[in-house]
Amino acid sequence: MKKVYLYKGFERFWHWTQAFLIFFLMLTGFEIHGSYNLIGYENAVRWHDDAGWALLILMIFASFWHVTTGEWKQYIPTAKNVRAQMEYYLTGIFRNAPHPTGKRILSKLNPIQRLVYFALTIIVIPVMVISGFTYLYFNYPIQGFALDSLEPVAFIHTIGAYILITFVIIHLYLITTGHTITSNLVAMITGWEKMDEEEAQVAVEDVIESTKRHYVKQINGDKKKKAKKNKNTDSELK
Ligand code: HEM
């Protein structure tokens, strides 16, 4: 067995802070919605607004990190292996079948995760933030928007909240489906994921290739010399 460093410090900080904020927004949001009474309506509204601001600030930092490190490319959806991954989730997982796609440092997400995380980051979370702030400033119209009714905003915000709850439940279950029941969780805490020798080899290959591409370049003169040398050897062989 080996350990591979998959999740960097900021990535883990962002993941856990986002998880905490979404959980907290869910808890306070459904209190505002009237589903239960835990900390009282007034407090729930105050904490919900503050957590909303914190989520917005986190999103700005996370976007900056994803763009500057190139990590955003890992979220580009792909149709390749979607079916195999779906079959794995529906049946393979219960037969102990191998994972159809391996984790690599430069491609950590399987095709279904790519699709789901892309939809969450590009659609659901931004919709929650936009509808949330519309909701917020509609309530305080001094500096806010003039909307005819709050109903469509509340509707969209609540639908988004249900989508996020569904995601969180499925996500919690899938966390337990790694090599062992806790291996995915431990990896997101420590950054290191346990893999067998072969998987570890595959996981680092693309990072080695990409480092070579980024930091080592062939000098032009050398290229010409090499081509000439190859040509000469070819004609000698003939
Ligand atoms: C930047 C993010 C967010 C902001 C600024 C925000 C803001 C707000 C505001 C201002 C309200 C209305 C409070 C009132 O009635 O006075 C509200 C309600 C609510 N929020 Fe959020 N929110 C955000 C994210 C979320 C998230 C991520 C969730 C759930 C996962 C959520 C769930 C809810 C729910 C369920 C309600 C009650 C809706 C209703 O019954 O009409 N919110 N939010």
Written description of the protein model:
The protein is mostly helical and 238 residues long. The chain has a single domain, classed as Transmembrane di-heme cytochromes, Chain C (Fumarate Reductase Cytochrome B subunit), CATH 1.20.950. It is built from eight helices and two strands, in the order βααααααβαα. The chain has helices at residues 9-33, 41-69, 82-90, 111-139, 151-175, 183-190, 197-215, 220-237, and strands spanning 2-5, 192-195. Strands 1-2 form a two-stranded antiparallel sheet. α1 packs antiparallel against α2 (41-69), α1 packs across α5 (151-175) and α2 crosses α4 (111-139). The radius of gyration is 24 Å and the shape is elongated. The protein starts with a strand and ends with a helix. The mean pLDDT is 90. The structure holds protoporphyrin IX containing FE (HEM). Residues 22, 25-26, 29-30, 32-33, 45, 48-49, 52, 55-56, 128-129, 132-133, 135-136, 139, 154, 157-158, 161, 164 line the site of protoporphyrin IX containing FE.
Can I get a quick summary?
The chain contains 8 helices and 2 strands, in the order βααααααβαα. By secondary structure, it is mostly helical.
Order of helices and strands: EHHHHHHEHH
What is the CATH domain class? Mainly Alpha
- As residue ranges, the low-confidence spans are none
Instruction: Report mean pLDDT, rounded to a whole number.
Output: 90
Strand content: under 5%
Rg from alpha-carbon coordinates: 24 Å
* Number of DSSP E strands: 2
Inertia-based shape: elongated
Major sheet, described briefly? Answer: 2 strands, antiparallel
CATH superfamily: Transmembrane di-heme cytochromes, Chain C
The proportion of residues forming helix, as a percent range, comes to 55-70%
Helical segment count: 8
- What is the number of independent domains? 1
CATH architecture: Up-down Bundle
CATH fold naming: Fumarate Reductase Cytochrome B subunit
Structural class: mainly alpha
What binds here, in terms of ligands, is: protoporphyrin IX containing FE
- First and last CA, distance: 50 Å
| Strand arrangement, major sheet | 1-2
